[in-house]
Structures are given as structure tokens and as C-alpha cells.
Amino acid sequence: MKFHLTNPVPIAAAKAGFSQSSGYRLIADSRLPSQKKVPRSRRRPDPLAGIWEAEIIPMLKAGAGLRAVAIFDEMRRRHPELADGVRRTLERRIRQWRAVHGADQEVIFRQVHEPGVQGLSDFTEMNDLGITIAGQPLDHRLYHFRLVYSGFEHAHVVLGGESFVALAEGLQGALWTLGGAPKEHRTDSLSAAFKNLDEAAKEDQTRRYEALCDHYGMTPTRNNRGVAHENGSVESSHGHLEKAIKDALLLLGTTDFTDLASYRRFIAEIVSRRNARNGKRIAIERTALRPLPADRTTDYEEALVTVTSSGGFTLKKVFYTVPSRLIGHRLRAHLYDDRLELFIGGSPLMTLPRGRPKPDGGHGHVIDYHHVIHSLKRKPMALLDLVYRDQLFPRQVYARTFEFLLSRLEARPACKIMVGLLALAHDKACEAELADLLAIDLDQGQVPDLAVLSTLFGPSDGAVPNATVVVVTPLASYEELGTVQAPQSSTDAMGAPL
Questions:
Q1: What pLDDT is stored for residue 312 in this prediction?
Q2: If pLDDT is split at 50, 70 and 90, which confidence band does 495 have?
Q3: Burial bucket for residue 319 (CB in 10 Å: 0-12, 13-18, 19+)
Q4: What do you get for the CA distance between the two ends of the chain, in Å?
Q5: What is the pLDDT of residue 461?
Q6: pTM score, two decimals?
Q7: Residue 233 contacts residue 184 (beta carbons within 8 Å)
Q8: Beta strands in 197-322 (DSSP E)
Q9: CA distance 131 to 256
Q10: Among 118, 158, 219, 351, who pairs with 166 as Cys (CB 3.0-4.6 Å)?
Q11: Which CATH number does the domain 118-286 belong to among 3.30.420.10, 3.40.50.170, 3.40.30.10, 3.30.1490.20?
């Protein structure tokens, strides 16, 4: 076309490298080939003709959240002649219609984050990992704290639900690990912590949470209810942390840990490696954090309990045994997420593992057979229908032994032998060794011989020793001790006495 400005068509075509006929064709129609394409027309009948305008669009207008698959099922019910392959066509056309005529969607506004401003807390379920402690499934979740600017993370294994105690313990652990506190602390409304609480309890929890934040100089904020993306900086990190834990478990080759402490160390090591990647940003944010107070604040619930004649007390639908000498005493209990600390007056008394009610709402039990065995020896038949019988046995092999005894013996001798075995484990401190011998008897299908086992682990404390023969020394021997013989005199070579 440039050459044609000064040359006739044959010469311009030759200079451009075209044939003469192509030159005349371009002069007649200068549009590009892509501009000459005719819009593609339908090659087959529309399968939604007759129902799209009349039936489907009214459904879309009436129900904004109606799924395409539900509309397709309804159309199939009304029009059985529709083929299965129409579903994809319907879904595509509904998507296109909503893009043009649909309702406005919520817009997420990305924020600029400054160091030292905001920290987030949330809980995440971990039961799908199949973690076990010494072979027993661990029902738990993780408290997860994260700084928005630097990505600093802290995770704490929580055995109970999303309670204030778990939040306080996990948050303070994060802040003291970090060495400072952000200006603002955000949670997801603490809805799980307030669930099933009356108004007075909710207000008490709110006051405690505000007091916790005030102790560290943080401003407490909460998400709008049901708006998860407002806590997105920690919500999205949940998935990344869980994937990292899954990968570490695969590399470890097992999901079983010897005790809870070893599992917590495992989680702490993973979180520490993730924090190392953001070391420079964390160092920058540390300089902008508020200094910590001199001491931590309360991260437990406090309750007063009375030890009953049952040898224990009930707290939050869980029965705990304590030494029977405490019957009638009133104790002060500090409830942590994983333990119970008892005080008599102001003096520390003992620490018990914290129990949980049963999933069906029934009472739970935390039983130590050492606390009740002295009374059970006097009333062995009480074992048969004991409310917490299953929790009384210190190891699974003891429970299996009692089931075996009941299958082979009458109830009375079975209870007597079983109580004798528990008393033997208590008196001789041989719980593990006795469990190994009981396992052998179970494998061989024989009833444990209490007398033989008692002899094996030594005589009882009240056994009378065999007669001892005492050889009496003659009195004349003592008289010889009193005889003093004068030494004989002697002289040296010069005659001088020595």
C-alpha cells in the first residue's frame, strides 16, 4: 500500500513481493485476513432452546446462590429428554450469564503491613494426621500465632478445645519466645471459646481476654463474624504449616511418639525451621515490638474443690482421685490446658493430668490406683462394678488380665486376684515388670499365680524372717582382752636400753 502511493498496482505489487492479482485484490479490500472472518454460527440445534429464557433465567434471578448442578437436576426432572452431556453446556452458559447479569461479589482489599503492628491467633484441627502417643490416639489441635509483617510463627499443641486457657497459654508462649508484643492482637471472635456459655460467662471471658491484652499493651481486635479472609494472614498459613508437618512425618517414618513432650519438640523444630527462612524480616520487626512486662499473667482457670469420701473430687465433669488423707479438705485447683495443679492453702500439693468429659457428655475420670489400692484391698469385690474400673488399671495388660480372670473364674476370686496384683505393683514398685509377666501368662492362656509372683518380687513387708542361729562368744575371751603383758626390755649394740 505504501508503494502504491507513487506507483501503479503492477509495480507496487512487484516491489512488495506480491503477485499482480494479489495487488489488485488488496486494493479492492484492504482489511486484514483476521478482520474478514465471519462469526462462527451454531452447527447443531441448541439443546437449551425453549427452556433457557423461560425456565432457567428466572431460576437464576430468584436464587443467586443456586448451583448449576441443582438447576440441571431440576431440568432433567422436568424434561427427561435432556441428555447427560447438556450439563457442561448448562454450566458454561450459567457462568457466562452470571458474569454479565450476576450479583456483585465481595472485594478483598490488600493491606500494607507495618512491622510491629499486628499479630494474629487462631486454632487448627490436627486429628487427620493420625498422631499417637505411645500407641494411643492423640485428640488435639494447634494454637497458631503469626506476625503479619515478618511471618514469625509459633505453634502450641492444645489437648482440649479452643478455650481461653489454651489461647492465653499459647499467646504468652509466642510473645516470650519472640521477645516482644505487637500493638494489635486479632482473633476470629473467639466464638469457639464462648460456645455454650451463658451471658455472665461470656462477659467474664471477654474481661479476661481484654485483661490479657492489656497486660502486654496490645489492642484486642476481632474479625467480623463469618468473614474468614479478615484473618487470612494466619488462615492461609495453617495449610502451609500442616503440609510441612505431614512432610516431616513422612520423612520421620512414623506418627507415633513416646510422649507428649517429644511431639511438642517435633512441632517446635518444624516451626523454628520455618522462622529461619524469615530471619531478616523477623529481626526488623523485633525492633518495632513493644517490650514485655516483668512477668507473665494468669494463663489458667482457678477453682475450689472439696475432696469427697470417694477419694477424689469432680471438676468440669471429670472425677480426679487424690490421696485419701485429703478427704474432707478443700483444695485450690489451677486448670491449665494439659494439667491440673492443686494447692492446699497457699502450698503446692500435687500436679495431675487434666481429663476431658466423654464425647457423649458423660463424666470423664483421671484415676491413679495408688490413691485407692489400700482401701480396695479391704473390699476387693468393689472392683467388679466400679464406675471408673476401666481407668483404674495403669496399663492395658492389667485390664486384659482382669477380663481373662472373669472368663475363667468366679467374680469373687477374680476380683481378689486382680486387686492382689495391683497391690503387688503398688507395694513393690514393679508395675512394668509385673505387666511383662502378666502378658506372658495371657499369651500362654494361664491364670496368674499371685503367690508365685509375690515370692518373685520379694517377701511382703510383714513377713517374719526365718530363725537365726546366734553363736555366743565365751566370757573367757573377754577376760583375755583385759590382760596386759609388760614388754621385755632390750638394749642396743652399745648396751643402752631401748
A1: 93
A2: low
A3: buried
A4: 149
A5: 57
A6: 0.65
A7: no
A8: 219-222, 256-257, 301-306, 312-315, 318-321
A9: 6
A10: 158
A11: 3.30.420.10
Report d(CA 297, CA 314) in Å as an integer: 27
Amino acid at 146: R
What secondary structure does DSSP assign to 82-120, as a single string?
--TTHHHHHHHHHHHHHHHHSPPPPPP---PPPTTSEEE
List the grid coordinates of 86: 447438556
Amino acid at 176: W
Strands 318-321 and 312-315: antiparallel
Q: Which residues contact 50 (CB under 8 A, 6 or more apart)?
A: none
Q: Give residue 392's pLDDT.
A: 92
Quote the cell numbers at residue 238: 495453617
- Give the pLDDT band (50/70/90) at residue 26: confident
Q: Hey, how many other C-beta atoms are within 10 angstroms of the C-beta on 198?
A: 8
Alpha-carbon distance of 105 to 146, in angstroms, equals 28
Average pLDDT, the chain: 85
Percent of the chain scoring above 90 in pLDDT = 51
β pairing state of 118-125 and 141-147: antiparallel
What are the residues facing 121 on neighbouring strands? 145
Alpha-carbon distance values, 292 to 14, 190, 214, 215 (Å): 85, 24, 12, 9
What residues does each domain of the chain span? 3-35, 52-101, 118-286, 301-366, 371-456
Determine the pLDDT at residue 493: 53
Q: Cα–Cα distance between 459 and 44 in angstroms, integer?
A: 98
> What would the pLDDT profile of 288-318 be if each residue is shown by its tens digit?
999 999 988 888 889 999 999 999 999 999 9
Query: How sure is the predictor about 192, in pLDDT bands with cuts at 50, 70 and 90?
Result: very low
CA distances from 387 to 199, 319, 365, 367, 393 (A): 34, 11, 9, 11, 13
CA separation, residue 191 to residues 202, 205, 295 (Å) = 10, 11, 28
- Name the nearest CA neighbour of 21 among 7, 11, 10, 35: 10
**How much is the pLDDT for 439?**
93
